[in-house]
């Protein structure tokens, strides 16, 4: 009986050893095969990190104004369909610019660009009829960069010292302001403000 047990134990041990050898050999073969494939792919460049796309196919937004205007320079015109009026726009809001037409606040973006482009003018000259323009009406600005159509979203009456008129905006906005009330004699205490959002554009 003891001999039979010993033979059976030895047989089981041999079987387990053979299974272990077979398992180890199979896994080693798979590992070696995978390693060789990895090395060959790396050498051919198939496993390399993806590179940046060429510069010519990157999506870049065209710069509207490669050259920025100088103070006093005429930069375009403002067309107000409701009034059938076309008004020249000058860069700057000093009295020299406002005497000639609509002034563009120099610290704001240019028409068509993202953010808040601010225009202003005198109520007794270029903007004497601006009070007839309100929500839903269009403001069209034409510059060297193209034609930009804005739709008035809001009309505001603010104090003359209210600086919220020139604050940055999260989208392309045109803010147009003039003194208010329109019939006030002397220095008006308030401002009539049109806030319009860009609705379409035709760039050059």
Automatic annotation (TrEMBL):
Keywords recorded for this protein, A-Z: Hydrolase, Membrane, Transmembrane, Transmembrane helix
InterPro entries: Sortase (IPR005754), Sortase_D (IPR053525), Sortase_D_1 (IPR041999), Sortase_dom-sf (IPR023365)
GO MF annotation: an example: hydrolase activity
Active site: 122 (proton donor/acceptor), 179 (acyl-thioester intermediate)
Membrane spanning residue stretches: 7-25
Gene3D superfamilies tied to this protein: Sortase
Highest taxon above the source species: Bacteria
Family annotation (Pfam families): Sortase (PF04203)
NCBIfam families documented for this protein: class_D_sortase, sortase_fam
Protein name listed in UniProt: Class D sortase
Species: Peribacillus psychrosaccharolyticus
């Amino acid at each position: 009986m003891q001999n039979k047990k010993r033979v059976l134990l030895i047989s089981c041990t041999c079987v387990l050893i053979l299974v272990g050898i077979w398992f180890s050999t199979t896994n080693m073969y798979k590992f070696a095969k995978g390693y060789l494939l990895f090395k060959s792919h790396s050498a051919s460049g198939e496993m390399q990190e993806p590179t940046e796309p060429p510069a010519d196919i990157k999506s870049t937004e065209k710069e509207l104004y490669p050259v920025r205007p100088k103070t006093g320079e005429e930069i375009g015109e403002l067309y107000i369909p409701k009034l059938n009026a076309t008004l020249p726009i000058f860069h700057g809001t000093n009295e020299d610019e406002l005497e000639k037409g609509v002034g563009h606040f120099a610290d704001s973006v240019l028409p068509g660009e993202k953010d808040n482009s601010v225009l202003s003018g005198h109520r007794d000259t270029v903007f004497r009829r601006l009070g007839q323009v309100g929500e839903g009406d269009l403001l069209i600005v034409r510059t060297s960069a193209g034609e930009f159509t804005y739709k008035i979203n809001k009309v505001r009456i603010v104090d003359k010292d209210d600086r919220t008129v020139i604050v940055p905006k999260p989208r392309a906005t045109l803010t147009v302001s003039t003194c208010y009330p329109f019939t006030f004699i002397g220095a008006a205490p308030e401002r009539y403000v049109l806030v319009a959002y860009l609705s379409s554009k035709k760039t050059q």
